[in-house]
Amino acid sequence: MINLTPQLKTQQLTDPMQPEPFRVKRVMKESYDTFTLEMEPVNSERLFTFAPGQFNMLYIFGVGEIPISISGDPNQPAMLVHTTRIVGAVTKAMSKLKAGDVLGVRGPFGTGWPVSAAKGCDVVLVAGGIGLAPLRPVLYQMLAHRDRYGKVVLLYGCRSPEDILFRKELEKWRARFDLEIFVTVDYGDSDWHGNVGVVTKLIPKAPFDALNAVTMVCGPEVMMRFTAIELQKRGVQGDAIALSMERNMKCAIGLCGHCQFGPTFICKDGPVFTYPQLQSWLAQWEI
Amino acid sequence: MTLNTNSSTKYVLESTDFQQLIDVLVGIGYRVIGPTLDHNAVIYDDITAVTDLPIGWTDEQDAATYRLNRRSDEAFFGYVIAPQAWKKFLYPSQVRLWQAALSNGSFEILLDSEKPEPMAFIGVRSCELHAIAIQDRVFIEGEYVDPTYHAHRENLFMVAVNCGQAGGTCFCTSVNTGPKVEAGYDLALTEVIDHETHYFVVEVGTERGQHVLEQLPVRNADKREAKLPKTITDQAAHQIKRHLNTDGIKELLYTNSENPRWDEIATRCLTCANCTMVCPTCFCTTVEDVTDLTGRQAERVRKWDSCFTMDFSYIHGGSVRYTSKSRYRQWMTHKLATWIDQFGTLGCVGCGRCITWCPVGIDITAELEAIRQTKAKGETIKEGSDENIG
Fold this sequence. Notes:
The complex is a heterodimer of chains A (287) and B (390).
Chain A: E1 20-31, E2 34-41, E3 55-60, E4 64-69, E5 80-85, H1 89-95, E6 102-109, E7 122-128, H2 136-144, E8 152-158, H3 167-174, E9 180-185, E10 195-196, E11 213-218, H4 221-234, E12 241-244, E13 260-261, E14 264-265, H5 266-269, E15 272-274, H6 275-282
Parallel strand pairs in A: 7-8, 7-11, 8-9, 9-10, 11-12
Antiparallel strand pairs in A: 1-2, 1-6, 2-5, 3-4, 3-6, 12-15, 13-14
Chain B: E1 10-14, H1 18-28, E2 31-38, E3 41-46, E4 57-62, E5 65-70, H2 87-90, E6 94-103, E7 106-110, E8 119-124, H3 126-139, H4 147-154, E9 157-161, E10 187-194, E11 197-204, H5 207-213, E12 219-220, H6 223-239, H7 249-254, H8 261-266, H9 274-278, E13 285-291, E14 297-304, E15 314-315, E16 318-319, H10 324-343, H11 353-356, H12 364-373
Parallel strand pairs in B: 2-8, 8-9, 9-10
Antiparallel strand pairs in B: 1-11, 1-12, 2-3, 4-5, 6-7, 6-14, 10-11, 13-14, 15-16
């Protein structure tokens, strides 16, 4: 079937459709169905610079390619970090990678979180489930320049205590006086003494100045839709709410058509949007 | 023969000399593609001789209807439009993007270095020129350029042919894309058959076109002949039966996502994807990653895809557009509304292919009108109405 004829030659990887090989340095199991990969480019010393909120297309040789947000520290560009939940063929194959294995990377693509716009403001991050992964680079960025921001608040909701992502890191951050971290779960167990309920329930009592806050929301679509409504009830302006969207993607450069959401291409116009850009579409089914 | 070479000058090429046009293009090095008869349809394919053309045939088109009939004359371009658009050459339905081989515990990407042959299209209709211009916006004029499309497009020689008749599903006059070719061609032909004469009025659009024209046995058109492109296309325009009302079309669709008509269409739509395959502007693709049996060599193939499939919108947990209602709505809303925000034009050129090739005869012009006329059951969801929830 595949015939590598002599007319083929290796070229420089400049085409955005060509994956570049990255080698896995470390695999960390986050929970029963999530894991984090740390990786470095195979062929170069290049630094992988990205804006918090951007994503890569990750390719498992011969299996397939999927869009995954970058979950690492933007101030440590020598190491590319992705956190993923096992949901399909590619993420399953990815979960079996070990240190030394190679996968393909295209990117980074898309828009980032409004990190610079947040300077001088309170910052509220609202995450649902694996939606915490694309927001973690924002936290790293803010902790690296903590004096630039007002209050930094993370409201995090997930299904159960065992679904909590980055648990050790969250516990460490929660001990700091310059971070406000609130976690809630849909279903607690007898060992859980924290909040129970959807993440929107945390918004009314969260400590931030709604009139001077930049908010960033990532989670299931319906969670983001009602989070935006709750934030507005607190007095946050619509354009101070950023959301990160997800759709099927094949190219990540706006040519394959898959990621359309109304008039937007999530891959190049997003994934991070302001709420007013999406508001009328979020309330509709099957867009 | 001395020719007046003013840019607005029109020329006459006798039908008996048409072979020379093909020969000149072949001589320059073009792969010449034009209408042929194949599988009881007009199919754009490689041509080397006039006799490859569908001489003396015409096409009868209506909703879910296509057949070829004999004409009473020997017209070369006596049909309206072929089922398959030119996009199959500019943006082939299957393209291998790269191959990869495992080596030294990593992989190496291998690219095909072959440059595509320059192509010359003969018989491009006005709506099809507009469709290609729309695909140019998608593939060349945006933030990212598609290298396959660009490579095919940049050396393309375009011989347009004016429409002498309208098909049963045409509505180019509604979207200002025809029937007369106005721009985007190297040479434009108008086929004229009357009494004992059979010739083409030739218009030149570019210097490349002029260069080709100079190698053809043409003469200057006289005053009467020079008016024929307009006269003939005016006649075709008058035959058009369908109309797409584009008044406030974007707002209409943006505010009617819950219109009950979508449910009604869904009772007929088979989500077969025919409309997207024949549409000359539809550009969606998917990729397939495969390996050989050893698992050491892989390749990625890009294929045409359709928003009518369940896979198209699949993300973990299921398809976003799981009803046929939402998939038809996505397609039509994209063609007629969101396309305007994305690319500054309609995504529809009025070629009528989606109507002809819909197996159940769904007519985009009629459905848009029905949406316009159908009063939505409930109030359309307005921005901010969520505030009343919970």
